[in-house]
Amino acid sequence: MSKHTNTSESNTAQQQLHLQTAISQPIRQAPQYIHTVQTPIYRASTIIFKDTDALNNRHWSDDYDYSYGTHGTPTTYNLADQITHIEGAKYCLLAPSGLSAINLVNSALLNTGDEVWIPDNIYSPNHDHLVALQQKYGVVLKFYSPTDVDSIQFSAQSKLLWIEVAGSITLEFPDLATLIKKAKAHGVTTALDNTWGACLAFSPFDIRDTNNANKSNDSEKLAVDISVHALTKYPSGGGDMLMGSISTIDKKLHLELLRMHALQGIAVSGDDCAQISRSLSHMALRYQQHHQNTLQLIPFLQSRAEFAQVLHPSIVSHAGHQHWQEICTTGLGAGIVSVIFKAEYQLEQIQQFCNALQLFHLGFSWGGPTSLVMYYDLKAIRKLPTPHLQDGWLVRFCIGLEHADDLIKDIQQALNTLQN
Ligand SMILES: Cc1ncc(COP(=O)(O)O)c(C=O)c1O
């Protein structure tokens, strides 16, 4: 059977073939004129070349040059284009999870002897990946305090600075503008984990230089070099999907990352991309609601005697509150709030509290409709002193899209079990 151009021709051709042959051949090609609201789903390992010229002239870095499933399809590039747009970037790569996007940055940029600086509140699997690179390949890992830019002392070996805004679990909001300027002054590449802000709280490639003397709105804008986003969270919005993105504005850097992306065979499925593309149009509405629900919970949490501290960037006493105000001019702050129980509460009571919750479920991740809870031993996860944090077990609430009143009642009844 020859290449098919229309269905009636191909049906006739198929009739002359054995069924097993006909059923193994591609049949229908989408016509140019069909236009649907959602992007069609292309599933491909093999991509069929039109002819030998197309085969021989393909180029690995051309994203309209479809040549193999790992390279991408119109469905995967559609999502990459959407993410490029919302990040305010120029280039975007997709990876099968947020963690694999993080790992791509680490493995593409770091060589033996290079220093990588990470905040003490970093997403812990990123830390664990860097420890593995340190042990296997001699990358040098350095920690800085998310509340103190001066705790970074770059050297000639410094290569990469990771930034988390707000930091994982304890949500400190760093001095983003100073971090970027300090890294740029030393030729260090900045990689932001932009999952919390989701491109809605602030724009990673268009950040106000808040330390500029006059602090006017038209003050100089700053940009990170790389923005990594766990699309698993708010972009997916369902709690049922895994994906990550790596966005950049610099072509040379993008090509460096793309090269490693291709070498490692990093690829995402068309089905997953289509689901996330579909969810993106209502991400801003959902993010607003997660944020509003969280703001409604905060006064209640602050009123409870069981908690020594409530952690959220909107709270005036929170570490980095002023930076949050200056950077997140949208006033948004995602749907995560943590509490530190008073030190007298023991592990068994913390577990009793988590088990008593009915609407908050024990689980990692966030960004879906269902509220989640997780408990942490701060002393076990932090390396540097944390004078801004009280002693005690930390419980993180990831606020879903339920009604805030129901969530408050749920926490109330779970706290009441501690009195019994
Ligand atoms: C801040 C942050 N970055 C990255 C990730 C990794 O995303 P994924 O679960 O898609 O690997 C997570 C996941 O919890 C996260 O919280």
TrEMBL record:
Keywords for the protein's UniProt record, in alphabetical order: Lyase, Pyridoxal phosphate, Transferase
Residues that bear N6-(pyridoxal phosphate)lysine: 233
GO MF annotations, alphabetized: cysteine-S-conjugate beta-lyase activity; pyridoxal phosphate binding; transferase activity
Known catalytic reactions: L,L-cystathionine + H2O = L-homocysteine + pyruvate + NH4(+)
Gene Ontology biological-process entries: L-cysteine catabolic process to pyruvate; transsulfuration
Cofactor: pyridoxal 5'-phosphate
Entry-linked InterPro entries: Cys/Met-Metab_PyrdxlP-dep_enz (IPR000277), Cys_b_lyase_bac (IPR006233), PyrdxlP-dep_Trfase (IPR015424), PyrdxlP-dep_Trfase_major (IPR015421), PyrdxlP-dep_Trfase_small (IPR015422)
Name of one Pfam family that matches: Cys_Met_Meta_PP
KW Lyase (keyword) present: yes
UniProt family annotation: Belongs to the trans-sulfuration enzymes family.
Name used for this protein in its record: PLP-dependent transferase
